[in-house]
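Whether sequence alone determines local backbone shape is best considered at the level of individual chains. When preparing material for the folding task, we compiled for one chain both its residues and its backbone structure tokens. No coordinates are needed to read the tokens, only the vocabulary itself. For completeness, the protein is quoted in full, as a sequence line and a line of structure tokens:
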Amino acid sequence: MFCVSCGNELPENAAFCSKCGSKVGATGNPVISSSDASKLYILIAHLGGIFFGFIPSLIVFLLVKDEPGCLQDNAREALNWQITVILGGIVCFILAFVLIGILLWWLLYVANVILCIVAAIQSGPNTVYRYPCSIRLLKP
């Protein structure tokens, strides 16, 4: 679990935070468990791609790259998907000279939004969502 005041990781039986000294579990001071933090990281990795491209999934992947598990796998899948979207955007830009790329770019954008939302809903600390048609550049 983590201290809500400073974000320091706490042992399960801690009464006070060793970093900031705030009381753990006090009224008005909720505690964030490590599974909640994992869910938050997964949501940031998947949903952040809608607004900020590959940056959120890259940050989450770099934060958890040394911790094996579903959190790392979800961050890797989100990063692979966002790289695929970037490559698709480049292809759409090239095809825009033939006028079909403009339609394909909007289709790619809608697919990105829908699949990021589906991934955020279906993934969790114990499950990994695999994006369809994603180029797997980062492998386990």
In short: The helical segments are 34-52, 55-64, 70-95, 100-122.
